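A.,

Following up on our hallway conversation. Structure tokens first:
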């Protein structure tokens, strides 16, 4: 089992929780809808490593109850509210949920921070028969040739030493983690946003490597990147489409006679 070895909790996001809530992209509604169709019941969904609730709130439109957990108190404080979503501070490896109580175990852009061996044990414990597991990730965004020519070198080269090792698992689309379940075939989905220059810079500022570089080496290279990005963008108010292809690993955790998808 390949594990990201997160114990104790490595908090990369509490200090940027406000920016994370404001600037992280939103998952397509089709993602939550597909997850729901894979479950034999839609009573309870558990969103582990929920951050500020980007997936949690979408699941709330399909499940009677969503329990969204994150180890970061700051993330929970900033999370988007939804009448069917209950936010709790808890690690993914120790959710505090009852045995056989969950129809969907989901995690979006967070599983690379988990101790995956312990997390999968927790999933097996809390999942009901017919319960589904779905892990979602996304890597670097795609804009257009002019913007990508500025952002890609910054992401891959300038920030290289500041990305935590877990980031490589994301770039691999979670394909290299040992996934001890019979997999489902997910749909091809992507996130999309229409952003101004300020939106793009706000998002880049949420990257853990940007925060780590600023702390270790100052903001000189970061500000220079933003200037280059502004020059390539042109009119700051101009709208550009931004895309993030999604990678999904999904499975039925405990098969039942009526399991589908």
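Then the amino acids I'd put at each of the 261 positions:
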């Amino acid at each position: 089992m390949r594990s990201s070895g997160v114990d104790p909790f490595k908090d990369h996001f509490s200090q940027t929780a406000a920016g994370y809530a404001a600037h992280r992209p939103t998952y397509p509604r089709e993602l939550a809808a597909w997850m729901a169709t894979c479950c034999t019941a839609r009573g309870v969904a558990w969103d582990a490593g929920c951050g500020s609730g980007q997936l949690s709130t979408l699941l709330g439109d399909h499940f009677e109850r969503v329990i969204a957990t994150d180890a970061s108190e700051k993330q929970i404080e900033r999370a988007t509210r939804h009448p069917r979503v209950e936010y709790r501070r808890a690690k993914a490896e120790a959710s505090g949920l009852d045995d056989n109580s969950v129809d969907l175990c989901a995690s979006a852009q967070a599983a690379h921070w988990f101790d995956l061996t312990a997390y999968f044990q927790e999933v097996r414990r809390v999942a009901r028969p017919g319960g589904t597991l779905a892990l979602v990730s996304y890597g670097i965004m795609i804009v257009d040739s002019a913007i990508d020519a500025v952002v890609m070198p910054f992401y891959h080269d300038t920030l290289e030493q500041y990305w935590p090792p877990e980031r490589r698992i994301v770039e691999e689309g979670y394909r290299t983690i040992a996934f001890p379940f019979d997999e489902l075939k997910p749909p091809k989905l992507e996130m999309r946003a229409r952003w101004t220059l300020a939106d793009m810079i706000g998002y880049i500022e949420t990257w853990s490597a940007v925060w780590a570089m600023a702390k270790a080496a100052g903001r000189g290279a970061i500000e220079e990147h933003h200037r280059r990005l502004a020059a390539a963008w042109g009119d700051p108010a101009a709208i550009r489409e931004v895309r993030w292809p999604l990678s999904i690993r999904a499975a039925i955790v405990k098969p039942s006679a009526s399991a589908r998808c």
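Residues 14-252 form a domain with the Rossmann fold fold (CATH 3.40.50.150). Curious whether your intuition agrees with the design.

B.
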